[in-house]
């Protein structure tokens, strides 16, 4: 009975007037706005043919601020202005101001329309504002930060730039939200792997997931941590599922998995995540599961046209999507993706850098150009290394003398191999050593990223529309901290295990007078580099790896060393070195029947099933005379992880006395005990008519817990002739030749 409501239900007022004396005092009270103010706002037109632009709101000392906004919206007064909820940060006053004269805006529950185009919507439908708000909006819209708050009597207001609008758009995706958390829009990418909390930078996966739910008006995620006992399903316990019944029992321990469910505000179930992987810390389980969901979302946000069922099959973790509920909440995303709007993306243009080709030390790769400067000294990064760089990103345009600085950072840290930066940056760093600098030239990313990063958004937009425009990344590698596994080995073993494994391989090369060698999973070429620098009977060396980044680095190192081979080692017989890009679980007939094959510290980076497939392919099809396979001895971890170096990696707030050890590297999919490794190798040897003997490096065979790195040496039986592969010998090559060095062609 105290409140009166207007016919359109747009406003409410007190039914009985306020007392006259109170009204008089308010009328004569001095206005808080003592002078005129002009604030910056953003106009979001409904027509996609028009760009989002900056505008000014002129607030006078007299008059109601909403009446001024009403005039800019083309309506009579404040009574015809709809005000949205707060957009962006909860403590801000940033809102959308919408015309109430658009009849569709008065529908309290807009009808959900699952269409891939705008044909089923009224022509005044404002897609950009709707996507920002999460509900259908019609007509032109103003984005501004102004209003009276409980914090004081004065009218609060602050500028809202076009850059702020684009940053809000970027923050609607998991990748964009992570970029904003690192203040590195053009450098950072959402990592695909959660290694340790100590090595993670930026907002943690759990916080990012909660942020995405808030951005899209979903309920808070429901996390359910499940405690598992040590059994064959616990991936983190170090057990081998296929061989669990044949191995010794390890100490029982608790491990944890985290299940996640996402609901709409109406409590419709949208996403379920049930990861199989277990962790010894509840926090790690939560972060891993959160990243699984974020990765799934990221794939959908980047490729909304890919069927949801297919995304669930390829997702990082076990994801189940409830299609109807999901589309109801995210149909605006699909519309945004399918409409090519002026302020959408101007990416994927062909990079024209012909004027740079003549510069010294310029390397071209995948529509990108790289120039490295500085002497090769200090340590070089590899997968698992924690690096620190300084960088700047400039926008260079034809006809402009000075490039536009978009983004810079004096110290940016991340872990190599986790996907935490733009891929080409990581590829460049793998070719550098500490202290070196590099310039990388590449085409433009989507325009929203450029404008969101640029301090001067107006100049950035103008530059992007020029005929020739590209990005220049200038980076300097400040520091490299080697992976924990390498640091533990170097601290406890002299010479390091990596060097001992090379010596182990050289021993068999000399014994067999081997002339040809294949290194399965050569990575960045550490073994190949050592072989090139050691006297031996080898004439032909081949490396295979699935990582192009690692192979590019290997090629650079090997090329530098081979070019000096005549001087450094005139007795060397090496005449051919080739690097192939491909999976070691796939056969290529060109590499059939080599003298020696090596696979050092590789199989633990594969799933156990894939390691078994590799064994069959290597011994059954490649058929080297000798195959040397090494892998960590899980039982030795208790010694390695008692070192101070290992304990420094633990999170200070989560340290506890564990009953068993963790893996040496976060990228390891398994680590086998001696019994497990012996079982695997013995079965393979028997199956393919090889003999096998066991050894290792680091430690003593007969002293518990054995060698730190266990080795199996497979020898093809003399009475077993080299198999005739028949059709497979003429099969189409499966490997791509990434780099080749030939002594004869070099001499000519």
Automatic annotation (TrEMBL):
Pfam family, one: FKBP_C
Any one Gene Ontology cellular component term annotated for this protein: nucleus
EC number: 2.1.1.386
GO molecular function, one term: peptidyl-prolyl cis-trans isomerase activity
Name listed for the protein in its UniProt record: Small RNA 2'-O-methyltransferase
InterPro entries cross-referenced by the UniProt entry: Hen1 (IPR026610), HEN1_dsRBD2 (IPR040870), Hen1_Lam_C (IPR040813), PPIase_dom_sf (IPR046357), PPIase_FKBP_dom (IPR001179), SAM-dependent_MTases_sf (IPR029063)
Domain of life the protein comes from: Eukaryota
Cofactor list: Mg(2+)
Coiled-coil region: none
Reaction equation(s) it catalyzes: small RNA 3'-end nucleotide + S-adenosyl-L-methionine = small RNA 3'-end 2'-O-methylnucleotide + S-adenosyl-L-homocysteine + H(+)
Family of the protein in this entry: Belongs to the methyltransferase superfamily. HEN1 family.
Domain (Small RNA 2'-O-methyltransferase Hen1 La-motif C-terminal): residue spans on this chain: 38-172
Source organism of this protein record: Opuntia streptacantha (Prickly pear cactus)
GO process annotations (BP): RNA methylation; siRNA processing
Keyword tags: Magnesium, Metal-binding, Methyltransferase, RNA-binding, RNA-mediated gene silencing, S-adenosyl-L-methionine, Transferase
Record domain PPIase FKBP-type: where: 380-439
Domain HEN1 double-stranded RNA binding: 174-301
């Amino acid at each position: 009975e105290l409140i009166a409501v207007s016919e359109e239900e747009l406003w409410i007022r007190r039914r009985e007037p306020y007392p006259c004396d109170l009204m008089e005092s308010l009328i004569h009270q001095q206005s808080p706005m003592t002078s005129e103010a002009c604030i910056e706002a953003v106009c979001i037109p409904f027509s996609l043919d028009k760009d989002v632009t900056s505008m000014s709101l002129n607030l006078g000392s007299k008059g109601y601020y909403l009446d001024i906004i009403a005039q800019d919206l083309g309506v009579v007064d404040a009574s015809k202005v709809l005000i949205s909820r707060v957009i962006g940060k909860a403590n801000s006053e940033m809102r959308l101001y919408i015309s109430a004269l658009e009849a569709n805006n008065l529908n309290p529950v807009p009808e959900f329309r699952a269409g891939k185009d705008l044909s089923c919507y009224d022509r005044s439908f404002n897609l950009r504002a709707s996507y920002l708000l999460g509900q259908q909006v019609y007509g032109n819209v103003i984005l501004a930060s102004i209003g009276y708050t409980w914090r004081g009597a004065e009218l609060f207001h602050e500028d809202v730039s076009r850059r702020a609008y684009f940053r809000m758009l970027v923050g609607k995706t998991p990748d964009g939200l992570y970029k904003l958390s690192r203040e590195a829009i053009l450098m950072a990418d959402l990592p695909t792997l959660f290694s340790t909390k100590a090595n993670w930078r930026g907002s943690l996966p759990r916080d990012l997931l909660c942020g995405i739910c808030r951005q899209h008006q979903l309920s808070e995620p429901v996390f359910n941590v499940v405690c598992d006992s040590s059994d064959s399903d616990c991936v983190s316990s170090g057990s081998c599922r296929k061989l669990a019944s044949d191995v010794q029992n390890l100490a029982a321990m608790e491990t944890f998995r985290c299940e996640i469910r996402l609901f709409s505000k109406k409590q419709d179930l949208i996403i379920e995540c049930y990861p199989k992987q277990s962790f010894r810390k509840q926090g790690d389980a939560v972060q891993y599961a959160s990243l699984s969901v974020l990765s799934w979302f990221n794939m959908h946000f980047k490729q909304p046209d890919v069927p949801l069922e297919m995304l669930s099959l390829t997702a990082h973790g076990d994801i189940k999507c409830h299609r109807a509920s999901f589309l109801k909440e995210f149909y605006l995303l699909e519309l945004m993706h399918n409409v090519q709007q002026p302020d959408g993306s101007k990416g994927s243009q062909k990079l024209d850098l012909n004027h740079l080709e003549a510069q010294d030390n310029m390397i071209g790769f995948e529509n990108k150009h790289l120039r490295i400067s500085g002497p090769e000294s200090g340590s070089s990064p590899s997968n698992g290394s924690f690096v620190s760089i300084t960088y700047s990103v400039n926008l260079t345009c034809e006809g402009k003398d000075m490039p536009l600085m978009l983004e810079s950072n004096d110290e940016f840290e991340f872990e190599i191999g986790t996907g935490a930066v733009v891929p080409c940056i990581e590829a460049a760093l793998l070719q550098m050593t500490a202290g070196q600098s590099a310039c990388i030239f590449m085409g433009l990313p989507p325009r929203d990223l450029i404008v969101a990063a640029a301090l001067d958004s107006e100049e950035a937009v103008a530059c992007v529309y020029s005929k020739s425009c590209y990005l220049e990344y200038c980076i300097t590698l400040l520091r490299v901290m080697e992976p924990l596994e390498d640091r533990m080995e170097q601290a406890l073993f002299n010479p390091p295990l990596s060097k001992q494994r090379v010596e182990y391989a050289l021993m068999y090369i000399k014994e067999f007078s081997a002339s040809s060698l294949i290194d399965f999973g050569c990575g960045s070429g550490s073994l190949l580099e050592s072989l090139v620098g050691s006297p031996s009977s080898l004439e032909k060396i081949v490396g295979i790896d699935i990582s192009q980044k690692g192979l590019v680095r290997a090629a650079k190192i090997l090329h530098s060393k081979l070019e000096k081979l005549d001087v450094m080692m005139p007795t060397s017989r090496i005449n051919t070195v080739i690097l192939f890009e491909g999976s070691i679980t796939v056969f290529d007939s060109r590499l059939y029947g080599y003298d020696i094959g090596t696979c050092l510290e590789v199989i633990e980076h594969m799933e156990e099933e894939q390691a078994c497939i590799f064994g069959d392919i290597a011994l059954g099809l490649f058929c080297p005379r000798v195959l040397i396979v090494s892998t960590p001895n899980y039982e030795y971890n208790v010694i390695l992880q008692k070192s101070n170096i290992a304990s420094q990696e633990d999170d200070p707030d989560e340290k506890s006395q564990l009953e068993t050890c963790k893996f040496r590297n976060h990228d390891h999919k398994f680590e086998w005990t001696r019994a497990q490794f012996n079982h695997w190798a013995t079965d393979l040897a028997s199956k393919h008519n090889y003999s096998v003997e066991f050894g290792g490096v680091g430690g003593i065979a007969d002293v518990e817990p054995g060698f730190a790195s266990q080795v199996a040496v497979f020898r093809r039986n003399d009475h077993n002739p080299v198999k005739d592969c028949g059709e497979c010998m003429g099969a189409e090559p499966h490997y791509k030749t990434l780099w080749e060095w030939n002594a004869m062609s070099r001499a000519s």
